[in-house]
Amino acid sequence: MDISGICITRQSTLRDALDMLDRGGLGVILLVSGNRQFERTVTDGDLRRLLLEGASLDQTLAIISERRSIVVPENRTRRDALELMQKHTIDHLPVVDGSGRVVDLVERRGIDDQILLSTPHMGDAERDFVDEAFRTNWIAPLGPNVDAFEHELAEMVGAGHAVALSSGTAAIHLALVLLDVGPGDVVFCSSLTFAASVNPIAYQGGEPVLIDSEPESWNMSPAALERALEDARRKGKLPKAVIVVNLYGQSADMDPIAALCERYGVTLVEDAAESLGAKYKGRASGTFGRIGIYSFNGNKIITTSGGGMLVTEEKAFADRARFLATQARDPAPHYQHSTIGYNYRMSNILAGVGRGQLKVLEQRVEARREVYRRYCAAFAGVAWLEMMPEPDWSFSTHWISACTIARDSRIDAAAMIQRLSAEFIEARPVWKPMQLQPVFAQCAYFPHGNQSVSEDLFNRGICLPSGSNMSTEQIERVAETVLKIGQ
Ligand SMILES: *Cc1c(COP(=O)(O)O)cnc(C)c1O
User: Fold this and answer.
1) What is the pLDDT of residues 188-218, one digit of tens each?
2) For 164-177, what is each residue's pLDDT tens digit?
3) Ligand 1 pocket member 297 (CB < 6 A)
4) Strands, E assignment, 304-447
5) Which domains are assigned to the chain?
């Protein structure tokens, strides 16, 4: 902020001070000596008291008492500053340099601007679809928004069929039910992912086998997958399915992975919860498996507050998924069930939100890619920080802009995340790999090579704020703060 308009000296009159307060509009001005040495703050209240005590408007500020002010030295964090302001119930803090000259005045609302990792970003149409559902009393699950959302999403990604569900996790679970995964069955899954990719294997009593990442895309390593498949073949126990995860908006290297699955006769399931809108060699992420799934959880690139979608080319799968997701009711006039069902369908209200969000998906993708591009530019000359790579076959949405900190750098990822938090910037570690999770520690794990890539990414990785609703100033504040902390 330009502070020349709010700095005043003891030679000025009370009238000058009131005038300056009025023009500044902040409710506070700064009393400084000749070369802008900071002395104290002066508020409306201070001047009012002087006048009530009998001072005249033409007297100078020489009469104002000395007072120690709350000052934030520049090396303090935003959190320190905010705590001070809350403690003393003040809205403005002068900042002084090493020689006591005032250089800035920070406002409370400028300080407590929290930059979050990824927040929902609604468009203009969501409310209309939801209102329509209210107007027509289609509040129940199912209804026209559900059907339309399914059609619109299927069309957008080029899938034959889409089934709207209550969550991405439900979609993965139903995929495994459709593929008849049962107790004792082996299912392979990417190890560097969110637990929701693997949990449904356990719901079915299956046995997860975890496959490491490759450094090029951070996604499933074809080399590790091949060793795992060969090992399984030798043991005579091939997996029922391979769940390949597309991390942070980027597709895995599908050609070699699909070729391996084909060679071993294993079904591919694609967990595209994080990669709606991404492409692999021009084709929509999520359409490479026999079944693919998307998530519309609150932090994903588009959201219905909670929801998921299952996509497939096979009508029989889609029909079966709808049947199982609505409690598996047999076509009979009475309530009859010959199989175990689930309550996994998306509601007509939430599908309305989804239809609106789908209309702005492309814009959201472009905005997130722009966040990534700005980070790349800001960190271009920096040796100790590397952005998540984007191979030439990938069109990533950069749902999350992730990076790694070099092993020999001044600060590690965990400390960086903590320091960013003190500056009100929400950064997170990269997913903790499943083989390191207590609940999956006993699962077989196939690393990429001699090195466990997922563990290395976990140790060195940081997810930076990536929301499509971030302002340019916020992106720059993140980049500058990262550089300041790490340099
Ligand atoms: C979010 C997510 C899920 C689960 O989706 P929900 O809709 O939250 O159930 C599954 N897999 C991955 C990789 C995810 O990021």
Assistant:
1) 999 999 999 999 999 999 999 999 999 999 9
2) 999 999 999 999 99
3) yes
4) 308-312, 385-387, 394-395, 401-405, 428-429, 444-446
5) 3-111 (3.10.580.10), 125-358 (3.40.640.10), 361-486 (3.90.1150.10)
